[in-house]
């Protein structure tokens, strides 16, 4: 999942070298924290959060094949 988020995010932003995805697991789900450059935040979130929602939908679909719950958080 981490690699999937990283590839998608790097294709969206102007500074792909600043994309960092950290993965942590708690008792309920896998949490993926996506960090990008401040100037790229708008590109990752999109108008009214549409790109962020689409990213979460793709990751959720990929995780459902493995019967896991994945949460994607976009951090500053």
UniProtKB/TrEMBL annotation:
PROSITE patterns associated with the record: KH_TYPE_1
Biological process, per Gene Ontology: cell wall organization; peptidoglycan biosynthetic process; regulation of cell shape
Classification via InterPro entries: KH_dom-like_a/b, KH_sf_prok-type, KhpA
Principal location listed in the UniProt entry: cytoplasm
GO cellular component entries: cytoplasm
Chain's role: A probable RNA chaperone. Forms a complex with KhpB which binds to cellular RNA and controls its expression. Plays a role in peptidoglycan (PG) homeostasis and cell length regulation.
Complex formation: Forms a complex with KhpB.
Family: Belongs to the KhpA RNA-binding protein family.
Name this protein carries in UniProt: RNA-binding protein KhpA
Species of provenance: Lachnobacterium bovis
């Amino acid at each position: 999942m981490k690699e999937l988020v990283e590839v998608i995010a790097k294709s969206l932003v102007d500074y792909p070298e600043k994309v960092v995805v950290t993965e942590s697991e708690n008792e309920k789900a896998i949490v993926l924290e996506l960090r990008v450059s401040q100037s790229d935040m708008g590109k990752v979130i999109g108008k009214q959060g549409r790109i962020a929602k689409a990213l979460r939908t793709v990751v959720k679909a990929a995780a459902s094949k493995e019967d896991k719950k994945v949460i994607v958080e976009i951090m500053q």
